[in-house]
Automatic annotation (TrEMBL):
Region described as Disordered: 1-32
Organism per entry: Phycicoccus flavus
Protein name in UniProt: Uncharacterized protein
Highest taxon of the lineage: Bacteria
Length: 67
């Protein structure tokens, strides 16, 4: 008997399309990572804007470590 493959995950639910971001222990970085994870995968402009803000946050935090 040939059947169709089982259905995949429901991609309309954002919780099933993106895993939870890792916890770094740095509240500022963790907040920025969560913000990026909440952006819908099909919203490229928002993904880029949020990714750029995340990059700025990461650079600032690394700059703080450099003394």
């Amino acid at each position: 008997m040939t059947g169709s493959p089982p259905p995949g995950p429901d991609t309309s639910d954002p919780a099933t399309t993106a895993p939870e971001p890792p916890e770094t222990g740095d509240d500022t970085v963790d907040d920025a990572l969560r913000e990026l994870a909440r952006v819908p995968a099909d919203d490229l402009d928002n993904q880029l804007e949020t990714g750029e803000r995340l990059q700025q946050t990461l650079r600032a935090r690394l700059g703080d470590l450099g003394g």
